[in-house]
Design a protein that fits this description.
The chain is built from no helices and eleven strands. The protein is mainly β. The strands form two sheets. Strands 2, 4, 5, 6, 9, 10 and 11 form a seven-stranded mixed β-sheet that branches. A hairpin with a 4-residue loop joins β7 and β8.
């Protein structure tokens, strides 16, 4: 099992910045990729950004150019730096860790979620 603990959410004004952190523990050797998803009220959970063990990153079009995902393998921690935040970035942000193939995982682990609210 892998445990994920998120931090860094909060309330920010439009145009502001936040950095989310997610620390993994447990069977971290099984992780092939980590990332962030978000879920806005009444909407499906969607990918925000992902980074593989090899450093390959994937971003949602809506956050490209405004967000950067990074990873500290020594600390088993992934970060999401979000800049120029917009009200539509509001939602619960979930940390995700994939076991197995990073693109076709055998298992997905999820954190408990952290709320990000961007006021206009």
């Amino acid at each position: 099992q892998v445990q994920l603990v998120e931090s860094g959410g909060g309330l920010v004004q439009a145009g502001g910045s936040l950095r989310l952190s997610c620390a993994a523990s447990g069977r971290t050797f099984s992780i092939s990729a980590m990332g962030w998803y978000r879920q806005a009220p009444g909407k499906q959970r969607e990918l925000v950004a992902r980074i593989t063990n090899g450093g390959t990153t994937t971003y949602a079009d809506s956050v490209k150019g405004r967000s950067t995902i990074s990873r500290d393998n020594g600390k088993n921690t992934v970060y999401l730096q979000m800049n120029s935040l917009k009200p539509e970035d509001t939602g619960v942000y979930y940390c995700n860790a994939r076991a197995g193939n990073p693109y076709v995982p055998t298992y997905n682990y999820w954190g408990q979620g952290t709320q990000v609210t961007v006021s206009s």
